[in-house]
Amino acid sequence: MPRNDKNRTVEGEEVIRVPLPQDNQVFGIVEQALGSGWMDVRCSDGKIRRCRIPGKLRRRMWIRVGDVVIVQPWEVQSDKRGDIVYRYTKTQVDWLIRKKKITEDFLTGGLTL
């Protein structure tokens, strides 16, 4: 039976099962929950965006303050708005730190990437 490999990429010899930001997507930390599926997210490019949680994601998982997420900025108001497209688990965040994709300072609110 074939395996579902949609979340896998190959980096060198290592198979990566953790989705990484692609194209114009960025890492983000949820700063504040605003209600009705909206969150304020501090992004790795230094901007704070008001992001919405699409219905598909909203029904599947809870997103809380302090979670690491992938943000897809909108095409129109790319500096102010975006969509949350993925939430990382604690184990995945540890892997991102170990592989130096994000830093401890970014998680604590200090320096950006």
Automatic annotation (TrEMBL):
Lineage top rank: taxon: Archaea
Keyword check for Cell cycle: no
Keywords: Initiation factor, Protein biosynthesis
Cited InterPro entries: NA-bd_OB-fold, RNA-binding_domain_S1_IF1, TIF_eIF-1A, TIF_eIF-1A_CS
Classification via Pfam families: eIF-1a
Keyword Protein biosynthesis recorded: yes
GO molecular function: RNA binding; translation initiation factor activity
UniProt domain S1-like: residue ranges: 14-89
Family: Belongs to the eIF-1A family.
NCBIfam families for this protein: eIF-1A (TIGR00523), PRK04012.1-3 (NF003084), PRK04012.1-5 (NF003085), PRK04012.2-2 (NF003086)
UniProt name for this protein: Translation initiation factor 1A
Native source organism of the sequence: Thermococcus aggregans
